[in-house]
Structure formats: structure tokens, C-alpha cells
Amino acid sequence: MGSKNKLKRFKENEGFSNVIQPERDTVTEGRFELRGQWREKVFKNDNPLILELGCGKGEYTVNLARKNPHHNYIGIDIKGARFWRGAKTALDENMDNVRFLRTQIELIDLLFGENEVDEIWITFPDPQIKYKRTKHRLTNQVFLERYKAVLKPEGRIHLKTDSEFLHGYTLGLLHGLGYEIEYANHHVYRNEGSPEEVTGIQTFYEKQYLEQEKPITYVRFKLN
Question: Whole-model pTM?
Fold first, then answer.
């Protein structure tokens, strides 16, 4: 994407009613007013709140929201030019159960209150295979603790990825920490019984992975 296109999308995001872009200092200094009040102040209902972390173009966020109109969805990514597509689609379709939040994922426990989130989706994150980058891996122990701080006690996390490495790493970590693995599948399109919300939604890049015959893995777990 050219720099002019990015600037155009950044500008449009500023006018989108479904895009929230807090300053980092506002969040880190505890001045983010929506923390703990997303249902009351943003969605104006008591419906379940589901996050997609690293939402990219927002394809999963928007499609889940289409399938579940009585759930609230927030796509989170630092790259606003990417989720512009999802935000615009949601506005064009008058979807009032979708928002996009431009911020760093490591701030999640400062953006949401205790027990505020029902589910978290992590779809096709960078596996951060190199050892020096493990601190950025979205299923490492530090991130899991941050998710636990905002999830309800029975809240679920979904990891869908083309990285067999990340799938195996996450399963091993969950076993080691004693967390509950509800469902795990190393090839969701080859094995019967995969959840419909996993196989029924395909992102642009996922379709490319499937054309390359890369297995798509999935694990659903709790941090109780």
C-alpha cells in the first residue's frame, strides 16, 4: 500500500464513528475512560464482549459480528490503515456491534476492566519464531496473564494459525501451566467436527495458505 493511500485511510479512520484511537499516554497513565465501561458507554447493551487481537483487515471481526448480531466485537490492531477495510465495511452495513481499537496489544489490561471480556480471538499472528522475539509472541506467559486479567472466569481464548510451531508452543505452554484446553486440532479442514466459526470464516491470507496446502491449526482454551 502506498504512503498516500495510508495517509488517506488514517484520515478517514479519524471520522469513522466505530474507530477508537486513544493516545498511549492516556492509556498508560490510567486515564482511558472506556476501561470497564465498554458495554455501557460504547455498545449500550449487556451483550457478550469479544476481542480479536491483531485483527489485520478486520475480516474475522466483521464476519463473527455478522454471524452473532447479539454479541459485541472489537478488533484491535496498531495498524489503522489495515483495519480501515473492516471499519468501513461495518459502517456501510450499519453494524452497531462492531468497533475497532487502534492500540498496542500489550496494553490490553489497561484498556479493559477485570471480568469485562467474554472471549478473545487471536487469528494468524506472527509466530515470532526467533528466540529473541519470544516476548512479542501473543500466547507467551506474560500475554496470557494480561488476558486473564480482563477475561471472565469462564472466558475462552481462540488461537487460529497457519504456524504449526505456534500451535505446538501454545499447547505445550498451556499443559505446563495447567490451563484447560477445550479443543485442539492441527488441521481444521481435514478433520471432521471442527467448529463452524473456525472453518466458516476465511481471511484473505488464510485462503492463500490453503492454496499452498498449509494446514490451519486451532486451539480453544480457558485460563481458569
Answer: 0.94
